[in-house]
């Protein structure tokens, strides 16, 4: 920040430039380690202030940032999850499931309020592998797999 001051020297008034330095203060915030082993991906739901974290153990861990605590996870037995995204209206999360059948793969859709699950099956083409990611943008849903 700079400022002008007027000073009288030997009867003459002259402007003098004073330069002041403002030292920015840095505030350090404590980090929080969220104890979720085997995590794969995450997405933040700002409507619920909740972080959803997928794991290779087939669960979607839910971390409430208001209470700084883990909530009951959404789980599917005998599977492994990859990517995740929350719907634009915040009502659902879409999860890329790594398990695959001989001809089909699956994405999981969970209701964010109830945890109710809907399986979204797709037919695999050729040597196509497991589902890896999902995302929402401007009303367009993309479910990606390799």
What features would you describe in this structure?
The protein is mostly beta strands and 146 residues long. The protein has a domain of 101 residues: Neuraminidase (6 Propeller), CATH 2.120.10.30. Helices cover 0% and strands 58% of the residues. The strands form four sheets. A four-stranded antiparallel β-sheet has the order 3-4-5-6, with no helix packed on it. It has a four-stranded antiparallel β-sheet with strand order 7-8-9-10, with no helix packed on it.
Give the overall silhouette.
globular
Q: Order of strands across the biggest sheet?
A: 3-4-5-6
Task: Give the helix level as a range of percent.
Answer: under 10%
Number of contiguous helices: 0
Give the name of the CATH superfamily of the domain at 37-137: TolB, C-terminal domain
- Spatial extent as radius of gyration: 26 Å
- Overall number of strands: 12
Q: What is the mean pLDDT?
A: 77
Give the low-pLDDT segments.
1-25
How far the N terminus sits from the C terminus, by CA atoms, comes to 55 Å
How much strand? over 45%
Give the name of the CATH architecture of the domain at 37-137. Answer: 6 Propeller
CATH class of the domain at 37-137: Mainly Beta
Q: Structural class per helix/strand content?
A: mainly beta
What order do the SSEs take from the amino end to the carboxyl end, as H and E? Answer: EEEEEEEEEEEE
> What is the fold named in CATH at topology level of the domain at 37-137?
Neuraminidase
Largest sheet at a glance? 4 strands, antiparallel
